[in-house]
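Hi R.,

Here's the chain you asked about this morning:
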Amino acid sequence: MSALQDPDGPPPGERWRIEVVLEDLQATAAFAGDLAVLLGRGDLLVLTGGLGAGKTTLTQSLGEALDVTGRISSPTFIMSRVHRARDAGPDLVHVDAYRTDSAGLESLDLSSTMAEAVTVVEWGRGMVENTLVGPGGSWLDLELIREDLPVKPSAPAAPEIITDFSESEADVLGSRRRAVLRGYGPAWADPPAL
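And the predicted structure, written out as tokens:
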């Protein structure tokens, strides 16, 4: 388990919690569109979930709904990307904190872009909230949970020969997942209608 994953779950102090079942990629995109309506300049969205839970996929749909430029892909090796708004909307700053710590995040100087952007941080739970919005600040915590992925990696399976590389319906539509959205701080005192 990465040092960045919080084994105890979300931080204390949530104001509310909403859980939504996302049946497929279309439902994930619709949920991201609903979130985009709620988010504006200065907002922080912390994404949590295991590998393959859909954090980057959700961010792609969020970026499309916010109408930002550039292809949104996993920022794992670049750590941070800024996607500029096409019109009057906010920019989108997409960060992956998987391979860093609080000092590494501070070196990205995310506070300089916060005021004009929606900042989405994958793998940042318990690390970015205080750094970016302070102890009395506001943020959203979104946890994506795929039921079909093991919580802990199991022993490697025996090698198998794969000869059919065509996509299944599940590959095309995406897997079912639960989205647990939590609000923190005074700006998110009341739950939004989703």
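Confidence is low (pLDDT under 50) at residues 1-6, 151-155, 164-172.

Let me know if you need anything else.
M.
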